Amino acid sequence: MSTHVLKPPKLRRYHILESISSKTFIPREYQVELLDTAREKNTIICLGTGTGKTFVAVMLIKELSHQIRDPITKGGKRTVLLAPTVPLVCQQAKVIRDCTDLTVGQYFGNELGSWSKERWLCEIERNQVIVLIPDLFKMILFHGFLPLSVINLIIFDECHRATGNHPYCEIMTCFDVCSSENQPQILGLSASLISRKCQPSRIELEIKRLETVLKASVETASELTALSKYGSKPKEYLVEFNSCLEDESVLASVMSNINSALVFLDNVNFVNDVDNSLSHPCKQPRRYLIEIAHVIIALGPWCALKATQLFIEEINVTLQSIYSEDHIRFLILARTVLLIIEVQFQTILNDCDLLTQLINKAPPKLQELLKILRDYKPVSVPSIETSSSVTSAEPSFSKELEKKCSTQITDANMQSENPPASVQSVASAKSENYDITCNKISKDDIKEKRFSKNNLTSEEGKSLCGLVFVHQRITAFLLSEWLSAVKEIHPDFSFLSPSYIIGHGKNNSGLKTILMGFQKQEEVLQKFRTRMYNLVVATSVVEEGMDIPKCNLVIRFDPPENFRAYIQSKGRARVNDSVYILMVKSSEKKSFIDTLCDFKAVEELLLIKCHKSDHGMEDPVLESNVDELIKPYMPVKEDGCAKVTLSSAIALVNRYCAKLPSDTFTRLTPKWYISEDYSSGCTPQFQCVLKLPINSPVKKSLVGPWMRSKQLAKMAVALKMCEELHKAGELDDNLLPTGKEAVKSEDLTIEDATDEDIKRDEDPRKGPGRPGTTKRRLYYFKK
């Protein structure tokens, strides 16, 4: 009996060509370097969101996979990956399954805590890689179900959480009783080494503390390693809003009723002599009242009325199923207060039309949000004149922030006689137009940036793909509902397709009906990836690790609570020319700027403290005249024929390598190194040597000419290699690779292919199949 392995869908093929770099030779060299480091010692990798931390983890698992292929009873070991949330457990397990041939088990849920030792040993024996939440792994170790000596590698995802009594810290205490030669290797992954508010002067202490806890050293490029193609460098802006609300007399009466009820509930002395499994009878009523107070202040009358009605409906359902008299009494109290609030808000809104209810009666914060979103309206959507107060946004960043950022970072490095280049770049940010600058932006800037390129063929450059971050689950739900209602009533916002996503952990929300399970999360994320939704309101569950599309707009509706939240939410803005907007109340602007300056100082100083290498930071090249330095190569020197220039040569070499035969475990990349010559005076010269992958027919290494920069040296040797490839028959007269590209399905997305691409891809190739292609498919007997 033979088995047949299905090839990946052809629809996904051409995405690999879109991701081919034109600046440096693929794959990402900083990932390979970090992998080499992780092989040698315990390592904490700190890379920004979207820069490939998981790639390094998967490659390290592969490197050590020979240790885990045998059963434990025959001396085999196991690899453990710890992820702090259920979505991350499922996501990381799927990536490992897709990228390796290893058997992977994923574990989460309270019910697993009751499993016996025999059940766990059976699961661990059956699976070579174990992906689970840290609480379960802590239980396995603390109960002696599994010794550390049978584990070869532990990967801590979001390792910055290792503070205080977090399970990560408690797991590491088990290393104290395990001999050093039997201890597993450690790999930590994080988008930010600092998880809490930290003064710049304490950065080094925080990093050393994390290194001590995890018994590993930080080897990282940090968030600011200018990975221009792979990392995120969004433009940052600050949007102020006033806190004043209309109908303040009515709102004052509403808040007075809520406060009186809360004072009463706080002073209740209750002794439970009947059923210890029941919570305090005031707990849930108190949550309802606290959350409705928050909604009134933050989201205004329309959202408050909707939340009140949902709370009342939920209380009515609860009253039908609960048997405790005390719980019934206090729930009725909360319902009475909510009914009064409902009547008061209906009085405010009933005299208005729906447009006024939604927009004119909305608090200034929501109106500012609409101003921002309106600037992303497609050109095809006609504008109308209305009486609403929504006008185009003009977000700005105070010059005070720019000055303060520079001062903070400089002060933190006063002990350094020669400040690092990164500090100098911030100090001179204004003159160099560095991304950390705090310039003013106008609506014309946004529209020119988004709509001036009429030759764009991809909707990604035009259409909105945005995230709005909030603190509370109820805010995410109501904000999504409000945006949906605005979309229906105001034509300027008809292009919006909003939804929300929240966590499904312990219920700290008054409204239970909005809780979102894992399947619902995946449904929303899938629709967001396919652009059925173009705006998602989310809590912090999306900040860490979730696989979401690259966004061109990220809004912090509620300010980031700490450095981790700041850097990870900003990392979601990964499209070129993306925008990251922070909303702040006018009265809190000064303190917020102080906090933001600390974040930026930490961000810069992490770069100084961490490992530095090339990481794709290329020398500046004058794109306008670079092709004049060396003549283009033309196979046929006639008008209208193909040619490759200095600036396009690297991309062509990378495209050729992408088409070489390969499998999932092969990394096809050109090898190159730079020679430097400083003998000619003050101007250094650079020369690049390039060698293609081993399965290319062109075997020899090529030495390029001496050039004035490293980037030009790479371009020059790549141009020379293109000529050699054409002469060897590897490129045709149109300078296209003659072989079929190697495709890894896990790296591609289905929406990137056009109909024309699909038709071209399905055209049959003549001739015998080349090794590594589907035409040379082999069948074998499954053992």
TrEMBL record:
Cofactors, names only: Mg(2+)
Stretch list, region Disordered: 746-775
Any GO MF annotation of the entry: ATP binding
Residue ranges of domain Dicer dsRNA-binding fold in the record: 649-745
Residues annotated as domain Helicase C-terminal: 456-630
Helicase ATP-binding domain location: 34-211
Composition skew (Basic and acidic residues), residue ranges: 756-766
GO cellular component terms, A-Z: cytoplasm
GO process annotations (BP): siRNA processing
Signal peptide residue numbers: none
Keywords for the protein's UniProt record, in alphabetical order: ATP-binding, Helicase, Hydrolase, Nucleotide-binding, RNA-binding
PROSITE patterns noted in UniProt: DICER_DSRBF, HELICASE_ATP_BIND_1, HELICASE_CTER
The family this protein is said to belong to: Belongs to the helicase family. Dicer subfamily.
Name of the protein in its database record: Endoribonuclease Dicer
